[in-house]
Amino acid sequence: MSPAARILDSADVDASAAIGDGSSVWHLAQVRNDVRIGENCIIGRGAYIGSGVVMGNNCKVQNYALVYEPAVIGDGVFIGPAAVLTNDEFPRAITPTGELKSGSDWHAVGVTINEGASIGARAVCIAPVTIGAWALVAAGAVVTKDVPNFALVAGVPAKRIRWVGRAGHPLNPVAGSSDTFSCPVTGATYIERDGQLTEA
């Protein structure tokens, strides 16, 4: 059985948040109301997890990452240092009449990150986007469109530059084939069809 969650004294965790067994919330992290974090997750120093965010098991949110509500994070997701998941398509501090906006003046939209995907350091995912399973967003990228499963995206705005496997390493084309790739780490084979990659 996993040990109970470990929450450092300097972390700010709302009483309504549910933190799974074996998870750790480190110094100065803030976990807001109604958050659901699975088992064996790590929430790094100074990270922010917004109200109602749902996170699966075995995730890592690195130092000073900002995960704004209503993000949904799958199992085994990595969110790198200082990465940002936004939640406002049309950000403004004030209304057209000059009044300070409140929560009722806008509709929050979230980022969805599927199983095994990784978001590099200081990358920004502009909601609403979906990051596919086992995809890899390069450090510093700005994601404005959905990312396919197993895609490696980089740049501003982010574009697919390679395919990656479950191990996170770029895949190599298989000799004699235009649509088959192999992982240099695991040897697993992948097939590309119509701009999507699937495991063989």
> Any idea of the CATH class of the largest domain?
Mainly Beta
The CATH topology of the largest domain is what? UDP N-Acetylglucosamine Acyltransferase, domain 1
In DSSP terms (H or I, runs of 4 or more residues), the helix count works out at 0
Can you give the helix content as a percent range?
Answer: under 10%
Return the string of H and E elements.
Answer: EEEEEEEEEEEEEEEEEEEEEEEEEE
Instruction: State the end-to-end distance.
Output: 35 Å
Arithmetic mean of pLDDT: 96
- Biggest sheet, in brief? 9 strands, mixed
Question: What percentage of amino acids are in beta strands?
Answer: 25-35%
The poorly predicted ranges are none
CATH architecture of the largest domain: 3 Solenoid
Gyration radius over CA: 18 Å
Structural class: mainly beta
Tell how many strands the DSSP assignment holds: 26
Described by the principal axes of the CA atoms, the overall outline is globular
CATH 4th-level superfamily of the largest domain: Hexapeptide repeat proteins
The largest sheet has its strands arranged as 1-4-7-10-13-16-19-21-22
How many domains? The number is 2
